[in-house]
What does this fold into?
Amino acid sequence: MSSDAPTLDRRGFLKAGASAGLVVGFHVPFAGGAAAQGAAPEVNAWVLVQPDDTVVIRIARSEMGQGTLTGLAQLVAEELEANWAKVTTEYPTPGQNLARKRVWGNFSTGGSRGIRESHDYVRKGGATARLMLMQAAANEWKVPVAQVRAADSVVTHVPSGRKLSYGQLAAAAAKLEPPTDVPLKDPKDWKLAGKRLARLDTVDKVTGKQVYGADFTLPGMLHAAIKDCPVFGGKVKSVDAAAIQNRPGVKKVVRVGDSAVAVVADTWWRAKTALDALPIEWDFGPNVKESSATTAAMLKGGLDASDAVVGNQNGDARAALAAAARVVEAVYSYPHQNHATMEPMSATARYTPQRCEVWTPTQNGEAALAAASEASGLPAAQCEVYKQMLGGGFGRRGAVHDWVRQAVEIAKQVPGTPVKLLWSREEDMLHGRFHPVTQCKLRAGLDAQGNVTALHMRISGQSILAGVFPQNIRNGLDPVVFQGLNAPGPEASIGYSFPNLLVDHAMRNPPVPSSPSSTRSRTPPARTRWHCAAG
It folds into this structure.
């Protein structure tokens, strides 16, 4: 990695990951992946063709079960005119993305944005590679490029019938200057994109070959189990490490930040059972008396509070309600909900004073890299994250990478040795990032004929941005709260057209941390557990 690679702190990475502006290039040597193992050089950042005609398509977004990996590969392969039977994929790393001025764009995956935000530029990556392969063939035959055609990973000289495969052309194509004006195919001509093809990840998953974060191993690796304070905001008061230090396989008891303790051992089960036996005294902190009941009372108070921020309005809803022939009122509530991924949080970290590496499932490789950099104290250019297949995402593995920070902090205390941190299911449920807790009061005014003349929707509840991107809150307004409640227009997912409308939000943030969520999780409402330590 170049010494002049830009460095960013964690906030900078998160801002970059959320940015709509992408700098996309297509022709920079790749320092990792198949190319580093002696294969043919990459045609461009998105496409590498091996001598046996295997087409490797690089996918920056994460696969969480929805088919994003296959869908993006289809888009690239379509423009590339690749033989789908010989297509495979690999993940570029966020460290390489940083060094190459974010050539792969945004690494974040969530909200169905993996394809709809990147389809245009990944298609251009495939189209650019196809034109370079065609030009390489034309140069070899000394004919105009207009006389050649590409299909099924083969370039044909139409007048003579001569053919060269992509594997034969890749090395020469990689040396060419990429074209700048790249036309894309009309969707009516698509043969791969948008078609029901077998997913690229299915076979490995059903045969058990797929490696997830919990499966990952390295030579000489140790294992860590962790326990965080049962009350959010609490700390570790004392730990009696001597009580378990002679247990079989136990290597070390380590503090992780102010609030957690981990045991490092030669197997995870030995680490977990030793941790269960470890005497820990907690300082439960200021939230020890908080409960589901106190949170509900706080939210109820926000339903009629005067400090609400307006997200959408037209007309005069309050006056129309006062003059309505009839007013209908209802209050709805939504509890805290754990995102509950099938695979608990896990990360393997290896730290030296010169370099920090992390292997982990993540929805946002750049955010994971930023977390590793911040926890290790090393510049981002001296860190790397290698994405593992996700055993579920649902937003939990998105912006906040607390488990990555923990893994790096543990690895720093056994430098040079890889350590895999795996949360127990109990730890995962207790210390998730939860769906925001909310109450909502709706008051509708009706005229004598029963028509709605006014609607006031008061939302009292938690702000996602306050816990994830607080810098994006402007004048107390969290725009995420009002998604789906926008004014009618081309950018509105749902538009209310009542003549008098008021939608406002009284922000009420309990100590339970929240993060973006997915309705696809189908997770049953989780019981609020952060007050359990108080009895």
User: Anything to note?
Assistant: Residues 52 and 501 are 63 Å apart (CA to CA). The longest strand covers residues 452-461.
